[in-house]
Amino acid sequence: MPARDTLVINGTVYETEVPEGSLKPHEPPPDRRIVRAFIPGLIQEVRVREGQRAERGDVLLLLDAMKMYNEVLARTAGRVKAVHVEAGDVVEKEQLLVELE
Prior knowledge:
CATH architecture: Beta Barrel
Number of domains: 1
Strand order of the largest sheet: 3-10-8-5
Low-confidence stretches: none
Number of helices: 0
CATH superfamily: RNA polymerase II/Efflux pump adaptor protein, barrel-sandwich hybrid domain
Radius of gyration: 21 Å
């Protein structure tokens, strides 16, 4: 059965209905220490190594996608726990690239 609710905007009452199956289950926020490829491409250059300290905004690697270089940045500060790719690797979207701790 669809979920129903009432919405009031500027004094006007609207009846709403959300079809079953259209709501996604709640997902926790992504772990900012896990860096994944946001687009498929070719790793051009890896600029970090295990044990190295990375600050938020540091360039971790360069990803060539459709002839454009994309800087993959650290979203949080931390020590590099693992680098899962090297220059020349072809990666898929969402593939694990780097882990910080």
